[in-house]
Structures are given as C-alpha cells and as structure tokens.
Design a protein that fits this description.
Distance between the termini: 45 Å
Order of helices and strands: EEEHEEEEHHEEEHEEHHHHHHHHHH
Structural class: alpha+beta
Strand content: 25-35%
Strand order of the largest sheet: 1-2-3-6-5-4
Length: 449
C-alpha cells in the first residue's frame, strides 16, 4: 500500500469509520479537503455519557477507517442536532472542526508515545544551503557509492530536558526502479530525537516550538512537505505523520533569509553558524523562546497596524531597562516604615496595591523611547550603519504607537504604519539574535546576505 502524505498528495474526500471517545465507539465521517478538516460523529441512543458542556470541551478523539488511524486534536464544536427515531430511539449528530491530526497505518490511541519528530520543507532546503557534506553526498551518488554515515549528519546538538536536535540528509537513489540507478535525491531534514518517548500533547508542543524557530531563522513560511514521527506500540515501531496546516500571511514582510545555516554559494558559511542558538532557544530560563513565537505569530497577521502594535510590544519588552528615580532598596524600607502612618491616613485604601504601584513607577525612569535608543547605541557603528539604524525615527515610532492606543479617533496613514512596522521588525530581529547568543561579528555577516 502506497504511503500517504497529507502535505503534498492533496488528500481529500469523506471517510467513513468510527471514533473512540472514553472507550465508547460511535459511527463517524471524517472530511479532508482544501478548506480544512472536520469530523461528524453520530451518537445513537446517547451512548456517550457526556453532557453538552463536556461535548463542547472535547479536545481530541481517535478515528479509525479500515486500517487507517487518526488521532484528531484541536477540536471545535461547530454544529449539533438531535433526531428522534420512533418512540424510544434517536441520535445526536455533532460536527467538529479539526486543527490537526496524527495519522498512521499502525494502531494509534490516546496513550501512544512518540520517539522523535522530523520536519522537511522547501524553506529548510534553502536554509541549509550547499554544505561540504551535501556536496560529498551528491558526489557519492554520481559515483554509485553509498554516502558515509558521517556525511548524512550535518550537525547534532544535545539539549537538556529535550533530547538531540540535528540536521540530517535523508536520501534515495534516482533512475529507473528495478533497472538502472543514477544520481541521488537528498532531503535535508530537521529532527528532534527525544530523550524519552513523549505524549501527543508534548509532541505537538515540540513541533510548534521547532516550526516557529525555523520560520524565524528562515524569514518566511517553510512550505512544509512532511512531518513524521515514530510511534511505539505493542508490536514495535510504526511511522506516523503529524499534520498541522501551515499558516501563511498574504505579505512576506521579511526580506531574505534571517540567519542561514549555509548558502548556495559553496562558501563554507556553515562553519561559522552559531550553534549556541539551539541551547539558548530551548533554555527554560531564557524568555526569548516565547518572544520568538510571538514575533512569528504577528508576522502571520494580515493587518499592518496589528503587526506594528505587536512588534512594538515585543521590542518594548526586549529593550526595557531597570532604571530608578531613587534607590529601590531605600524606597522599599521607607515604604515599610511608613505603612502604619499610611494606614491611619488612608484607612479605606488597599495599601498593598498602592505600594506596589509606587515601586513600579520608581522603576520607570527611562521610558520606551530612551530604552530603544540606548539599545541601538549599544551596537558597533558597522551594524548601526549596515542595518541603517540611525534612519529609524524612534520618537516618531513611539508617538504613533501611543496615539493609536490612547486616542481612539486617531488614524495613522498606511504609509507611516508600514514604515514603523518595518523599523520595529528590524530591531526585534537584532534583539532576538543577540538574546540567542549571536555575536556582533556574525550580525555583520548577515548584512551581506
């Protein structure tokens, strides 16, 4: 039986089968199409012991059609109805939209565990570039030789509490099947091998983190061609595809690759790639992971004003400095000594909130504008000039944002919004790359790509 790829095979149709919810089986129809995925469930004679609120809160279910197994997740109840059949019988009819699914021809259930996650796509091919190892693999294929084990592993990085992340080259031979072999087809693949098998929820979380980070590095949608994992079950290990539709914006606001691993120019760029970014992105104590995911999410928004406001919030967070009007320890001690006097003077005031607000205001000596200026001035002149940071009107950016937020009747021109959006995006990229441990020398290299 041919392998099905829900990313590239344009699978569509209505598939009849059954779903299992809390060990109860019900007839169901799964619809796959360009407009999305949905599941229709028929509950005869109220077999499901769920009230309406429990049905609405269903998040996943297992669907089986012959030997095809799907674990559907991200469910949202769209329709529900009830039909009486005769005096005593009837059935409920539920229609859910589905955010994504795990698909396998080996048995899957809600307790299945997953050993790894591998991602392929057009963006990864371009991001990985033409490395020395890829050159060696292609030359082996042309010579009719098997690539070495060392060449098919571009890099590996061990990450605490996650496993091993790496870039690998999966390959197949070309030619006429069964008659003549010539050349080799190589697919650069990003893989996370977990330190221990994980649940479906954890698998999805790890995939989203990896996808968002790769999309950040690549600077555009990845154009996913496959996402696979290996599932452990009683008879061994089976291949499972994880499907989540890739969201694309109407406008690609990033100009070129942000941080390529290598390039198409065979210039050995991979030798200077800062692999510390993997450690820093997955470091639980580093807040940059959530900020990267927020940034990528805003790039998928099609409204430029919303993008600008989102970008502004991120750069505001990343450049914020602790700055105080008076020494914070002395102020804290003084407020502690004054608490009884304040309680007598203002008996009906919540002193806890009042004191916290005083401390907060004391820590805001430098406003967002001054913090962003200080951030820009912290770069060498080569980077300031290369990224044209002096041309960013920080005061104008902050003023426009404040008017949009605080003056409901104010309307900024589309041209200015687009300009400010691009300015804040450049600052975000620089701030994030620095937080990920990218050196100024590497940032200077990016100017020329």
């Amino acid at each position: 039986m041919d392998k099905v790829n829900h990313y590239t095979d344009h699978v569509s149709g209505i598939y009849k089968g059954c779903v299992t919810i809390d060990k109860i089986s019900c007839a169901a129809e799964l619809t796959l199409g360009a407009d999305g995925v949905s599941i229709r469930v028929f509950d005869f004679n109220k077999q499901l012991k769920h009230d309406f609120l429990e049905t609405v809160s269903l998040n996943k279910m297992v669907f089986q059609s012959e030997f095809n197994y799907y674990i559907l997740f991200g469910l949202y109840l769209m329709e529900s109805s009830f039909m009486q059949v005769g005096r005593d019988d009837g059935f409920y009819d539920y229609v859910f939209t589905v955010q994504g699914f795990a698909f396998s021809r080996g048995r899957l259930d809600e307790h299945s565990l997953y050993r790894n996650i591998s991602v392929q796509g057009e963006g990864i091919v371009k991001w990985s570039g033409y490395t020395r190892k890829l050159k060696s693999i292609l030359e082996s294929g042309l010579g009719g030789k098997v690539p070495s084990e060392e060449d098919v592993v571009e890099f590996e990085r061990k990450i605490p509490n996650l496993g091993v992340i790496g870039l690998y080259y999966l390959y197949t031979y070309g030619g006429v099947k069964g008659l003549h072999t010539v050349g080799i087809d190589v697919k650069p693949t990003m893989v996370i091998t977990f330190e221990a098998p994980v649940s479906l929820s954890r698998l999805i979380e790890c995939y989203i983190d990896l996808y968002m980070f790769l999309r950040f590095l690549i600077g555009s949608p990845i154009i996913i061609s496959n996402v696979e994992t290996q599932t452990t079950y009683e008879l061994g290990v089976s291949s499972t595809q994880l499907y989540l539709a890739e969201k694309k914006s109407n406008e690609n606001i990033s100009a070129g690759m942000l941080l390529p691993y290598s390039s198409i120019y065979r210039d050995d760029l991979e030798e200077t790639f800062p692999h510390c970014i993997w450690d820093n992105f997955y470091n639980l104590n580093n807040k940059v992971r959530e900020l990267v995911k927020k940034y990528v999410t805003y790039t998928m928004v099609n409204n430029n004003e919303e993008r600008f406001l989102g970008f502004y919030r991120i750069i505001e967070t990343m450049t914020k400095e602790d700055s105080y009007y008076v020494d914070k320890e002395e102020l804290s001690n003084l407020l502690g000594l004054s608490r009884k006097f304040l309680a007598r003077r203002f008996p009906n005031v919540s002193l806890g909130g009042f004191i916290r607000e005083i401390k907060r205001c004391n820590g805001n000596k430098n406003n967002t504008e001054s913090c962003i200026r200080h951030f820009i001035n912290g770069f060498p002149n080569s980077i300031i000039e290369g990224f044209k940071l002096k041309e960013i009107s920080v005061g104008e950016v902050c003023a426009s944002r404040n008017k949009i937020i605080h003056q409901p009747l104010f309307s900024e021109s589309p041209e200015k919004i687009h300009k400010h959006m691009n300015s804040t995006e450049v600052l975000i990229k620089l701030a994030m790359l620095r937080s990920l441990g990218v050196s100024d020398k590497k940032l200077e290299e990016i100017i020329f790509y």
